[in-house]
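Support reply, case 0932

Customer input (verbatim):
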Amino acid sequence: MPAPGHRFERVRFTSTWGSRDVLDVVLVRPDVVAEVSADRACDLGVFRHSMRFQRIRLDVTTRDAQPFGQGPAAAAG
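Our regenerated output:
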């Protein structure tokens, strides 16, 4: 489990835009790095499209990976 005080503790997510179905959130300590693609569209601070899994990155460790929003793509945007 992540350390107490994680920013997603007690946060609720919905399964689709406008849905009232709430997803279960399980916080984990990452052991593997995965590459994803994401649409950057936001509406009132909410991402409008889900992320899509691309591949597992065996060439990158969790210590090498930068936190979401702090990688090279964030600097370019």
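We compared this against your earlier run and they match. Two observations from our side: The mean pLDDT is 75. The helical segments are 72-76. Please reopen the case if you see a mismatch on your end.
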